[in-house]
Amino acid sequence: MSEQGRPSNFVREIIEEHNRTGRFGGKVITRFPPEPNGYLHIGHAKAICLDFGLARDYGGRCHLRFDDTNPTKESQEYVDAIMADVRWLGFDWGEHLYHASDYFEQLYQWAEELIRKGKAYVDDLSADQIRESRGTLTEAGRESPHRSRSVEENLDLLRRMRAGEFPDGSKTLRAKIDMTSGNINLRDPVMYRIRKATHQRTGDAWCIYPMYDWAHGQSDSLEGVTHSICTLEYEDHRPLYDWYLDALGIYHPQQIEFARLNLSHTMMSKRKLLRLVEGGHVSGWDDPRMPTIAGLRRRGYTPESLRDFCDRIGVAKSDNTVELALLEHCVREDLNKRAERRMAVLRPLKLIVENYPEGKVEEMEAVNNPEDPAAGTRKVPFSRELWIEQDDFREVAPKKYFRLTPGAEVRLRYAYIVQCTDFKKNAAGEVIEVRCQYDPATVGGDSKGRSVKGTIHWVSAAHAVDAEVRLYETLFTKPDPDAEEDLTAALNPQSLTVLSGAKVEPALASAPPGTRFQFERTGYFSVDTHDSAPGRPIFNRTVGLRDTWGKIEKASS
Fold first, then answer.
1. Is the residue at 294 inside a domain?
2. Which residue among the candidates 56, 134, 201, 260 is catalytic per the annotation?
3. 139 in the same domain as 93
4. 270 is an active site residue
5. Is 235 in the active site?
6. What's the pLDDT tens digit per position in 203-222?
7. Residue 521: which domain range?
8. Would the pTM count as exceeding 0.90?
9. Looking at the domain assignment, is residue 555 inside a domain?
10. For the range 202-209, what are the long-range contacts, defined as Cβ-Cβ under 8 Å and sequence gap of 24 or more?
């Protein structure tokens, strides 16, 4: 266990060692630095929980800093969505909201300083030429013919780049490090490129923009960040992070890398998720099938369940894949405690209680949530004509089928025991009506000594509210969709099923958007926040009552 009484991990061990040695004076300042070029997804949720959670646990603070260094792909829409997602997850940055663009002038001045120190130069090679001359893991790179330019010439060219004198792609500023380094990131990396694009914050004030590796460490330094926590793909970039800070001789945070979240049947590439949105394969970034935080929120996931999931999977140094079943388990476990129960018939079949008086209506008392006594009860109308699920009747029942079939008895949830007496079919041979007799002495939970194994849900036909129900499965059929070359071929054609004729109990007619329920015997559902309307609710299935993708692996596995 860590000093805070929470499960330890290697990141906490590093922080606690720093606290013992006094490296940062006992301070813990982290940052979450998203690029505003798309919506955040479940992988970002892990980073958010780690960055903000560590700062909380060690009495520090976490900054939200937008890496807005690529104006061609960024927008205010993404900035607003990211802030909403972080807040929804339960975290806040207080007054510590920053942007890399806040530091553009300082970054530029430092770039000139590196030129004066002989540690940076302006290069005329194209992007392809730079890539080709970098070499490979087994072959050293080749120095640019422009690497030996004088300090004066480099300063002149950089200032003219800033002034907009040169076209896009014609020149870059590169750090002068080592073209023979075993780490390709140290082979004279690009610091600035010319990009004549309007920035969503700075407008047209700049036409050269810093690369992430140049902006990242210096931004951390300016903000006094102590622990710069990144995903594992930045491990090979850490020597460059350190080189820039040491070359400038400025305050030096500690970069720490952890394994990103890999979730089965889930895509984690923002670039590929954008392709799904732009290609019309989903309705938008917040489509409930998307792994975005906005999509999960619209589907009915709770922030508590996502935080619980992130706690369970822990923080590791090596990559692994977490089964989707664990995420489903976390939301199911959370909703079981907080979601009120309701009855909803998704695929209706008429049930007529023959011996129940016509015109009579009873109010049956139904429990709102057996896991929460404070949730109380509600009244549900019961009448002679009901809707039941089509699957709850079989003309010829298989073994261990404990629902309605000719001669069989079942209990109607919160109501009576009924016995099936007859049924009707249409010309196509489909069952369209089931008839039964009820026992008035068996109201509520009283079975009068009978052994009735089955209980089914129902809705009074006269009082039912029409609703649309959207059933979701995984967006991809492949366990690792990020590895698929043909993105569309991996899409699941059954990822969305729309049931337009569902019948729900009247209490659901005015349920506010975003309200979550358990539809008894069916699953957990949420009122859609976009398309639902008063009197005509639309429900998104959050998760079924049982695991979709097999057994849940222990979080420690």
1. yes
2. 260
3. yes
4. yes
5. no
6. 999 999 999 999 999 999 99
7. 270-340+467-544
8. yes
9. no
10. 202/101, 202/104, 205/104, 206/104, 206/162, 207/161, 207/162, 207/164, 208/108, 208/161, 208/162, 208/173, 209/69, 209/70, 209/71
